[in-house]
């Protein structure tokens, strides 16, 4: 499934083969939380934007329209018109961040829907069943997402519970993949490493989940309040204990410089809502830094967002026109801006892969880390 083609330092260049296509890594997964990219981007647009993998969310799709309905309609790929790989988040993060009145027990979590207050239960088996109904390419294990920082003892107990839940996830997925009416009998399972910023807990937890020989492994619980130095330190601490022959996924980390730094520490896959969310507020990525189209200086700027970008937006429209759309609250502003940012991120990953291929990644990192996140 995963082939490591070459390394430059700890940076890895590989291919990840799935039943829905092969992913060139390192790769950024574009986030379509409720089976759509916010900002009016369809699955068909994503092909032109160089997207390789789309990420959808178990919790949101379970709440509406319902995973059973999506299964009845042929699964998530058919439902949203996307033929490439799809990764579904387990729903754990949303259960712990959005849901109110949650109660954690060994069997799972009782919580209230953020939409209508309906009482819901989700545990490892339920998460696997929902993701099986969706028919995604990759299912994420159900884990407890705790605040960072959290007390050491609570974090340790949480890690232990997440391991127990992971055993149940694996057993349930094996059962579901064997059923005759399963949409994707080749669905893969990724485990999630937790442990806040405690080195010993992170390492011990990774050692324990690696023993289950899963299809891939993720680092969760970062980019949630810790400093970037702490985040980089934990990544460097954990990756040596991750299998070389399995894909490595850093969850929810999305600034371009964070991605480059994480690649240099051995990470293969990324996701974040940041590029689409920022775009909808007029904050656009360029190869010289981040611009804010709401600024008055762009009112008469007839140049594209980035002269070095050949996305559909930059090929046809100016900063002045996009700024006008934002000020006029035209829906087209969101669509054109999101298209640019997603294209930028997917091109960034393309350039990272090329740099590793040509043994120039260190030079690439040295050039772009200081500038890509700066505000222009």
UniProtKB/TrEMBL annotation:
MF (Gene Ontology): glycosyltransferase activity
Gene3D superfamilies cross-referenced by the UniProt entry: Queuine tRNA-ribosyltransferase-like (3.20.20.105)
Cofactor dependency: Zn(2+)
Cofactor, free-text remark: Binds 1 zinc ion per subunit.
Superkingdom classification of source: Bacteria
UniProt key word Protein biosynthesis: no
PANTHER family: QUEUINE TRNA-RIBOSYLTRANSFERASE
Protein name: Queuine tRNA-ribosyltransferase
Taxonomic source organism: Clostridium facile
